[in-house]
Amino acid sequence: MSLASLSTLAQVPLRILLISPEGEISLTLAGLLQPLQMAAKILGPARLQLDLMPLKSAVQAPAGPAAQLCLLVSDDALAGLSREQGRLLLQRCQAAPVWGAAGAAVLWLARSGALDGARTALPWALYADAGEVAGRAILTPNLFELDGHRLSCCGGAASIDFALSLIGILFEVRLQAQVQEALCVERIRDASERQRQALQARFGALQPKLSEAVTLMESNIEEPLSTDDIANLVGLSRRQLERLFKQYLGAVPSRYYLELRLQRSRQLLLESHHSIVQIGLMCGFSSGSHFSTAYGALFGITPREQRQRKLAPGHGVLPDPLRL
Questions:
Q1: pTM of the model
Q2: Which residue from 30, 73, 144, 244 has the least number of CB within 10 angstroms?
Q3: Phi/psi of residue 20, each to 5°?
Q4: Consecutive H or E run containing 103
């Protein structure tokens, strides 16, 4: 499900609650806090209220007004909680219409059973510790996920992209651009972009053929291989390869490969000065019309519109009520 569905959280003021162990200083927490604090300062408490609650307080009996969005945030495993404290923590989170976790806290939430059946962005470094969770939650290599009312973010530097994406969806794109500029963030990565090491960490030993197939795709963007070629190169039949991709990545090989090439084209549109035609050719599209149609189907915007947004004067920055 697209993060755009969060735009239905229209309550004013919108209250966002972050729960984190007291005294923890982590990249994930900082990556969420700084963009959201900047947005809250610009918008004012009448539109956005951001609260940071110590974990110790959250495991006490829930009280006070519920947030509209609640996230557990930690780069360390949430250990030492009793069963009753865990129950109260879940109750606190689930009082919000949308809730979830970022960083290593995703694993705690998944182990609690709260993410069963949900697409879940677990930090790639924790795949080895996932154990039985991998059979209940649908672990994806993406930077962040929204499945129904459940949010997850792999944390680390991706938490900045996550926070900026939330700002753009919950408020205005112009506000997102202003905070992005203040933080000197050149590009906001999309939710569907993949953690660099996630596939290798998750499938490298258990599904080496799948990992090898994806590596072949990543190494042959400009001149795409056919599904039959990839199957032959990794020593599988086409049907076996398709079964692996459907089971573990939720898409047939051709679809996964197409999205991989389109993600690369988006990166080039935003970060390079190549022409749109050149980028299409560099990503394996033989015609501009095919490239434009495929790009629009995945991202909801044409390559030309993507480039024009990047080049727009002022990049859509708000009139500056507060110089950050």
A1: 0.67
A2: 30
A3: -145, 150
A4: strand 98-103
